[in-house]
Every structure is written in structure tokens, then in C-alpha cells.
Design a protein that fits this description.
Blueprint lengths: L2 H14 L19 H15 L20 H16 L1
Length: about 90
Amino acid sequence: MSDVADKVIGIIAEQAVLDKGDVSMDQTLDDLGIDSLGLVESIFAIEEAFDIQIPFNANDPAASEFDISSVAAIVKAVEGLVAEQHA
């Protein structure tokens, strides 16, 4: 698992009040019990942890370019943003 994936899973686990080992890549935020406020807090925590800007619209998450459909999708999107920043 990449460092990015490990950090993102840690942030998501913290929001869900779970151990990192209880979070799997195929789970959705709903599966983990993370509501819209928890989602926004997770986005802010990820932005801060990686010093990136996530293209996310908290008022209309479905219209965002940032894929939040699963833990794996979030990890992949963050990895892409981190790679762009370092390019």
C-alpha cells in the first residue's frame, strides 16, 4: 500500500471512529457511517495532510470532479492530485 493510501485510510478511519484495519478499499463512506459533515472534515484533513486543493463542492458533492464513490476512488484521486503537485 502506498504512503498516500495509508494516510488517506488513516484520515477516513479517524472520521469513522474505526481502526485503520477496519477500513477496506471497496467500502463507501456510507458503509463506514461517514455523513456529509464527516465527508467535508475528511476532505479538509486530506487537503491539509498532503498540502493539496481538492476540487470538491460541499454544497453539491455529486457535481464535484473528485470521486468519492469508494475509499479506493478517494485514494486514487488523492494520488493523482499529489502527483500533479509534484510534477
